[in-house]
Amino acid sequence: MTHKSGRHFLQLPGPSNVPDRVLRAMARPTIDHRGPAFRDLFFALQEELRWIFGTQHPVLVFPSSATGAWEAALANTLSPGDAVVAFEQGFFASRWAQVAARFGLEVRLQAQDPRRGVDPQAMEALLRADPGHEIKALLVVHNETSTGVTTDLEAIGRVVRDSGHPALLMVDAVSSLASIELRHDAWGAHVTVCGSQKGLMLPPGLSFTALSLAALGAHRSASLPRTYWDWSEQLTAGEQGSFPYTPATNLLYGLREALSMLCAEGLETVWARHRRLAEATRRAVGAWGLDVFAEDPWASATVTAVEVPDGADADAVRSVILEAFDMSLGTGLGFLKGRVFRIGHLGDLNDLTLLGALAGVEMGLGLSGVSRTAGGVQAAMDHLSETVT
Amino acid sequence: MTHKSGRHFLQLPGPSNVPDRVLRAMARPTIDHRGPAFRDLFFALQEELRWIFGTQHPVLVFPSSATGAWEAALANTLSPGDAVVAFEQGFFASRWAQVAARFGLEVRLQAQDPRRGVDPQAMEALLRADPGHEIKALLVVHNETSTGVTTDLEAIGRVVRDSGHPALLMVDAVSSLASIELRHDAWGAHVTVCGSQKGLMLPPGLSFTALSLAALGAHRSASLPRTYWDWSEQLTAGEQGSFPYTPATNLLYGLREALSMLCAEGLETVWARHRRLAEATRRAVGAWGLDVFAEDPWASATVTAVEVPDGADADAVRSVILEAFDMSLGTGLGFLKGRVFRIGHLGDLNDLTLLGALAGVEMGLGLSGVSRTAGGVQAAMDHLSETVT
Amino acid sequence: MTHKSGRHFLQLPGPSNVPDRVLRAMARPTIDHRGPAFRDLFFALQEELRWIFGTQHPVLVFPSSATGAWEAALANTLSPGDAVVAFEQGFFASRWAQVAARFGLEVRLQAQDPRRGVDPQAMEALLRADPGHEIKALLVVHNETSTGVTTDLEAIGRVVRDSGHPALLMVDAVSSLASIELRHDAWGAHVTVCGSQKGLMLPPGLSFTALSLAALGAHRSASLPRTYWDWSEQLTAGEQGSFPYTPATNLLYGLREALSMLCAEGLETVWARHRRLAEATRRAVGAWGLDVFAEDPWASATVTAVEVPDGADADAVRSVILEAFDMSLGTGLGFLKGRVFRIGHLGDLNDLTLLGALAGVEMGLGLSGVSRTAGGVQAAMDHLSETVT
Amino acid sequence: MTHKSGRHFLQLPGPSNVPDRVLRAMARPTIDHRGPAFRDLFFALQEELRWIFGTQHPVLVFPSSATGAWEAALANTLSPGDAVVAFEQGFFASRWAQVAARFGLEVRLQAQDPRRGVDPQAMEALLRADPGHEIKALLVVHNETSTGVTTDLEAIGRVVRDSGHPALLMVDAVSSLASIELRHDAWGAHVTVCGSQKGLMLPPGLSFTALSLAALGAHRSASLPRTYWDWSEQLTAGEQGSFPYTPATNLLYGLREALSMLCAEGLETVWARHRRLAEATRRAVGAWGLDVFAEDPWASATVTAVEVPDGADADAVRSVILEAFDMSLGTGLGFLKGRVFRIGHLGDLNDLTLLGALAGVEMGLGLSGVSRTAGGVQAAMDHLSETVT
Known about the structure:
The structure is a homotetramer. The first copy, chain A, is α/β, with parallel strands linked by helices. Chain A contains 13 helices and 14 strands.
């Protein structure tokens, strides 16, 4: 078996690189999830999760991927036949809509330029056009991981609240939480779901759900079937510092460590760091003569989808880079298959690792014959040098 | 903050002690779950999981607790209103039945002496009494963790098969797999579900599901809603060596390590080890003058529920032991609350650790005033000495 | 390759069991040993090392086994031909004397009952008989690891100080520090050396040396050659928070963690814990009808050397126990080869692990035919139950 | 406490980055160093160490830094007053000479251009000028870590052998072994010493010594005092698969893992990788308009000392880089203090990490005002792209 020297560059838009500290924290012995030490862990995590989501309400933690939290959000608040609105934001938004459809909900899919965030004015019009309040929920992806496009969630939340429409604003924050500013309570989100393997810097295996009073109200009358995903059982057990079934204890250890790192860095600093590294990435893309899929100002702070020229295959570029430089980039998903590759720049990341990653992309583009224009790394370095703190 | 010297004794019937090797394996960096290295891991795990379940069919792995696999078993094979039979085996059997009820299935609960395994003759009678094949599934817990009672699954499987009744035999093997003999294909199980944190020696966070052709057949016409738990998506993705959504990669690393340890020890040896340590435990209980909840020959090889005398509180004993000797024992669940404590003796365990654990129980019983009869550890040592290999 | 289930019992008198926390701390990335982060680590460790030795002076840390610190103690304070006194305490005392001899020192070996500690009165007589102060150093092993015999170091120190004799009192505290009370400054020790793998709960690879002003005075005129072991270079570099050559950084991480665990438990508690577990061990030995090599009150709190009956081979017992119960015990060293086995009961240890270990010894004695008398574990349990806190 | 996101860049010429695999291997529980499992480890390591040194003779392993192995090399083969030759290669060569002087050897220091390797012709002349064979040893640093200059050791060895002079060729391979081609037996080295924290990718704490028959012959009559460093005790114990005193067991675990990684990569590949990354580094330095301290063709494959312009302070540059980009570079040592900084490019390293590091240097030079010429990273990328395999 051959061995590749050095550290693999995992520049996916999730899983992001898990810090050593988190991996070591996860290596602590598993404890009794019904005992007093676990209870202390539970309540400490609740405090920190509320802080990271910007909420005063409990945050639910499922042993599952974020996909499960999508399902939980719907099954806990809606009843068969309820109408929900989804936007054609991209691959993940569509998948969420499919989940809704499979649960017998009436999905009203809104056309949407995938290069832009969801338009607050369109949202306003949509709600105004539903005076009978048929729409029970609005599914919005804060940062669509497949396109690298961020929606102005604060504006969306304002429009929904100002409309007086009772539809629940459900937010997928999978690739934004702990990387891009998000304030669950203040911005009026009713359900915000996230996974562990992006901004939270953990391995995959946990999902998170923030709630609102309105969401809890809807929960009481929602009739879709659920057991594993049942919020009430989680909330009841949570009051005692436990879970309704065995939790993924060791991932919770890692979560505690990750949250304490984020807290030590400071959330504003974390957000600013992501914006700065994203800008450096986009400058590199520009210097290569390539296009970022997202239009300004919706380009994401956590992932950049880079379009390859017509005739080129983005996955071939990814293969060259994986083979030659031991770096994993994100593939194009859905209609972007082969048309873009995605550079993840979120989670535990600093200037030099990003520059190493961009160097790998620049060399890989050259080796693939896709772009022989150098200068991307240089442009990124220029930006980072100018903005060093 | 004070510190307790030495290693905590985690003698629950799950989570069991996670071996250091497994914890270290889990600390490897997370990789791209859509890349070639992951594919290799996936297929290697499939081979090994089929071996541990004794099946030729794919084994599904969900990022979830085993509770989720219960739900998945039902939602993937049944339709609203279908009749399923469950047995009053104990706390976990009842919970599975509740899941079925919440999904709109007609649950036919069979009375059952909780000190004994499910009776093959009763099963036979039950199936014979259903000539119209209304019963679509039989929910059987192989080893009921709350009571320490093991059902003769081979006999049950034979009866079901011989009956010609098409009901699916669904097995909860949560606290038996990789500890107590179980042969999914050979014994005629149709769906067997398990979690990671018991015989498989992992932290919690993964569930496993073994299938049969009949189960797959039922799956095609089952109409209960499902997305996260959908078997088809898992099977389709699995053919490519991937999952339909982000898997719990680092737990899969641990799984690989655990399975390789089980393979190196040998499955027959693993089963015999559990039987031997369980017998030593029961001899200790007998010497203390206490009763094992399970009747012979149904006493479990993985967990022993010990009854405390009338007037005593089993949870008070557990508290004394936790405080004085830093050992966690299992609590009594459901109707056994306060009446039993449970000693887990499964997973990564050897003679000396078990004897240390039994010493802690013996001393704790004395300190609690519940049993001042010594000699339990001695009885266990005698058995282990006589049967040393 | 076969695999043994469960955790190996490492009941040597060192290396002792390294706590998981320490192993994880050691797994942190190596840092620049000349940078600011290392400096912080260095000074924090100095504080904590002075606390654990009970000294106000610097504590030197060598990347070496404790054997190296023996050599350093001599080479830094003495000149060729200087007379040193050593006592026939046992294997390790003799080895230290051999080191002295090989460096051209005149070793005056004092006869000594190895079952007893060094006698303060004998020491007093010895010093009185040297009015010309030919003796430059007294080599005393605080706790002789090969015999399980502890010397009353406080009394020895008092005698040396009261005598007015300028000989340096050099102490081997390898198997006593952080387990048995020792106060370097208060008891008048001039050089105290230790290793990492016993009471300090680390893997081997570090040695420690505490000093006195008199030792530093002697150092200035000592003419034995030295470079690696040179105290002055360590002291000079230490003022800047660094080492004269590359230190064993990752072991220092572990040291920090171990010292913080000892601090959280409290040193008095640590000492009391060792005494209590040692007493339980001796009660077990007595119940087996075997003899502890050490005479009262010199029996060690960290290691018990158990004599096997004439005709029996202690190493055969150890082999049986290793094979049957996966436990490592200490071998007999020097003249005790085959006559004793040694049970280590120091470092990161609690009641249940000790009882598991004693159960292994009891069963192993039975299987070997050496002692068929049971009751040792019972006697230990009785003691531990009576003295539980 | 603040927290810096992302991974620290440790670009010292040692310690090099310790791979996660090695850190995890070191986290295995410490075992009995006198038991059978250790014996297996010992003999496996001997095989692998002989392979990495290119020797058929035993390789000695001390728990010490490489400084200790210098001392051991001298003390085991020489007697007071023996003449040894050293060359003014740089800081570490001088330190080795000082060790010799402190042990009472007669050190003949040869002038040497520090920008070049030791000249085989000068060596030849030197030996020819010593017909009486007064010179007993030649101390040659294969790769002087402080200057980044590599000596052609094969040529030196040939000259020494051809000369017929019996002086022992002693080699410091601290920053060359496992990175730069070195063949102990074939090239005629008599003693080759190394440490663990460079090409071997381990944390510091172990030293290694390869021998020759002539060195063993000299050992038998050498009269310098030694105990800890005594080769004979190591050789004798080694025949039984053990050490004369407690070894640094957990570092040995890491060594095993590191050697298996080197073996899987292939030694020729490892050497070529170092040469390629070094060339990329030098191209970057050239593009910045700065000078590599070493002259061609002696520039090292493992470390590049970069001269800063007159008036600039290399340590100030290092501080800026550490502060702004979380990267540690090597300081100038001895007469190069402040005049150079050193980039380590050895051990576990790949293209993208090196490019990240060079980006950090380039930006740091700009921020420091030392070199505002960009293009270094670009030059390195060009080289790496052209030579990608």
